[in-house]
């Protein structure tokens, strides 16, 4: 579902003409732009590894499965041990390949059970941003923050903009921000987003240290 920024419907959403530059790899980004499942899997993998590594994962996985796209039904039915081997083969698809292989398979099994294996059905007929956020939060491996970031990615770069999508995405939906993968459109914005994430991490670490017993109060 493609809508204007205000929420009025205007088109078909993610398709072959969508250009992303998140993985910083032409082939991987091309897959992300045309494959709803690849985009979801990339978002799932985006934790505790560089963003480019996470979003290159779907392309590498598709290659190792001998395909040019990911298929939720095929992944859901894959032998768990054999699927894990696809992740652990060098170079590994993630810092924690075993656990992430399990999460990707659980995601695909959920999509098969709830959406007939069609990843785009998660957002295709969502009436509002809040509705879409709840659907994303229900996905295995998607907490509130990850769901908001993916909602922002859908709205900012993939043309999926149900009424109230920016509000539902919270600060990640703000126009002109550089907070998350939703704001990466090339090498320059990648640097800006990475800098923001590092600053946020440092601030959180400092705040946690200040709350420890015995910490000296600021004068």
The main pleated sheet reads as: 2 strands, antiparallel
Tally of DSSP helical segments: 11
Number of strands: 2
List the strand order in the largest sheet: 1-2
Overall shape? globular
* Order of SSEs: EEHHHHHHHHHHH
| Rg over alpha carbons | 18 Å
Structural class: mainly alpha
Poorly predicted runs are: 8-12
The span between the termini is 54 Å
Percent of residues in helices comes to 55-70%
Q: Would you tell me the overall average pLDDT?
A: 91
Query: Beta-strand percentage?
Result: under 5%
How would you summarize the topology of this molecule?
Elements (H helix, E strand, L loop, with lengths): L1 E2 L5 E3 L14 H9 L1 H10 L5 H14 L7 H6 L2 H9 L8 H19 L5 H4 L4 H9 L6 H14 L7 H4 L18 H24 L9
Antiparallel strand pairs: 1-2
Question: Can you walk through the features of this model?
Answer:
A two-stranded antiparallel ribbon has the order 1-2. It has helices at residues 26-34, 36-45, 51-64, 72-77, 80-88, 97-115, 121-124, 129-137, 144-157, 165-168, 187-210; strands spanning 2-3, 9-11. 56% of the residues lie in helices and 2% in strands.
């Amino acid at each position: 579902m493609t809508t204007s920024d205000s929420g009025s419907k205007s088109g078909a959403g993610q398709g072959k003409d969508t250009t992303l530059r998140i993985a910083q790899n032409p082939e991987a980004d091309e897959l992300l732009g045309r494959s709803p499942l690849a985009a979801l899997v990339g978002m799932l993998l985006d934790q505790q590894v560089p963003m480019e590594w996470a979003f290159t994962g779907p392309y590498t996985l598709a290659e190792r499965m001998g395909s040019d796209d990911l298929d939720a039904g095929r992944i859901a039915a894959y032998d768990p041990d054999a699927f894990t081997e696809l992740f652990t083969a060098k170079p590994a698809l993630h810092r924690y390949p075993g656990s992430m292989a399990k999460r990707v398979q659980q995601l695909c099994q959920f999509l098969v059970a709830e959406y007939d294996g069609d990843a785009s059905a998660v957002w295709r007929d969502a009436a509002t941003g809040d509705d879409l956020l709840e659907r994303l939060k229900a996905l295995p491996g998607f907490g509130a923050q990850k769901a908001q970031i993916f909602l922002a990615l859908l709205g900012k770069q993939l043309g999926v903009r149900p009424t109230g999508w920016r509000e539902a995405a919270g600060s990640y939906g703000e126009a002109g921000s550089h907070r998350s993968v939703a704001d990466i459109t090339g090498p320059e914005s990648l640097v800006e987003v990475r800098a923001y994430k590092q600053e946020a991490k440092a601030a959180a670490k400092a705040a946690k240290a200040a709350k420890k017993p015995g910490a000296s109060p600021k004068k």
